[in-house]
From TrEMBL:
UniProt protein name: 3-methyl-2-oxobutanoate hydroxymethyltransferase
EC assignment: 2.1.2.11
Keyword Transmembrane: no
GO terms assigned for molecular function: 3-methyl-2-oxobutanoate hydroxymethyltransferase activity; magnesium ion binding; methyltransferase activity
Pathway membership, UniProt: Cofactor biosynthesis; (R)-pantothenate biosynthesis; (R)-pantoate from 3-methyl-2-oxobutanoate: step 1/2
HAMAP family xrefs: PanB
Reactions this protein catalyses: (6R)-5,10-methylene-5,6,7,8-tetrahydrofolate + 3-methyl-2-oxobutanoate + H2O = 2-dehydropantoate + (6S)-5,6,7,8-tetrahydrofolate
Designated gene of the protein: panB
Function according to Swiss-Prot or TrEMBL: Catalyzes the reversible reaction in which hydroxymethyl group from 5,10-methylenetetrahydrofolate is transferred onto alpha-ketoisovalerate to form ketopantoate.
Length: 265
């Protein structure tokens, strides 16, 4: 299957079918994502949490995203590949942002980048788009601002904040963004934004009326059952599957029953 492009994503959106997105960070899972025919992969800075074990996404470096994007691209030849711009890779100046977006594409092999923020980043988004870099926006709970928010809470519950979020989404669209992620916002606001835009919205904790959905791959697979925010559904319970397999291995090693003759040379 040929790799999906931003045009293919536009066509799916125009057809009315919801767009599927998962995060992914390595070759092995990227292969599974291809077998599942998921439309698009985000190499999220959530790797700071689920790969590196940090409490926030703030420590993630551009080089980390490049490393994981390359691994994902080798394991999946069908999904549109979007690389996240990590904290402080675009906040200090538009030039720095442009150069780092270029690195994610040149060195990582990404087809698009994602940035957090609305009106504030719109001029930079326009410069990226002008340079041939497709951009995904990200509004609502933008985890790079966790310390400004004072935690991970639903955003834009009040009407003035909701109005600002809508203005942010429109600014991203006007700047040329081809898609916008809406994270942890009320479902009716996500619907209002989705209906106000002519580019697709991708929701996470944003209800069912967005143009598509995204989840962190390990979360949806149930690899860490201690993490269960309200918006998350475990589509499998792989934590117990993996632990049971590891225990069975350990038991057989200790019992000298693995490897058996059939595993030996
Ligand atoms: O980093 C990430 O995984 C994300 C998605 C949850 C949208 O930004
Ligand atoms: Na992210």
């Amino acid at each position: 299957m040929a790799r999906k492009t931003t045009r293919d994503i536009q066509k799916i959106y125009a057809s009315g079918r919801a767009i599927s997105m998962v995060t992914c960070y390595d070759f092995t899972f990227a292969r599974l994502v291809e077998m599942a025919e998921i439309d698009t992969i985000l190499i999220g800075d959530s790797l700071g949490n689920v790969i590196q074990g940090h409490d926030t996404t703030l420590p993630v470096e551009v080089d980390d995203i490049i490393y994981h994007t390359r691994a994902v691209a080798r394991g999946n030849s069908s999904a549109l590949i979007i690389a996240d711009m990590p904290f402080m890779s675009y906040q200090a100046s538009d030039e720095v942002g442009l150069m780092n977006a270029g690195r994610l594409m040149k060195e990582g092999g990404a087809q698009a980048v994602k940035v957090e923020g609305g009106e504030r980043v719109a001029p930079m988004v326009k410069r990226m788009v002008d340079a041939g870099i497709p951009v995904v926006g990200h509004l609502g709970l933008t985890p790079q601002s966790v310390h400004a928010f004072g935690g991970f809470h639903v955003q834009a519950r009040e009407e003035d904040a909701a109005e600002q979020l809508l203005q942010d989404a429109l600014a991203l669209q006007a700047a040329g963004a081809f898609m916008v992620v809406l994270e942890m916002v009320p479902a009716d606001l996500a619907q209002r934004v989705t209906e106000s835009l002519s580019i697709p919205t991708i929701g996470i904790g944003a209800g069912a009326k967005t143009s598509g959905q995204v989840l962190v791959i390990y979360d949806l697979l149930g690899l860490n059952t201690s993490f269960k925010p309200r918006f998350l559904k475990h589509f499998a319970e792989l934590e117990s599957v993996c632990v049971n397999a590891l225990k069975a291995y350990k038991d057989e090693v200790e019992a000298n029953s693995y490897p058996a003759d059939e595993h030996s040379f």
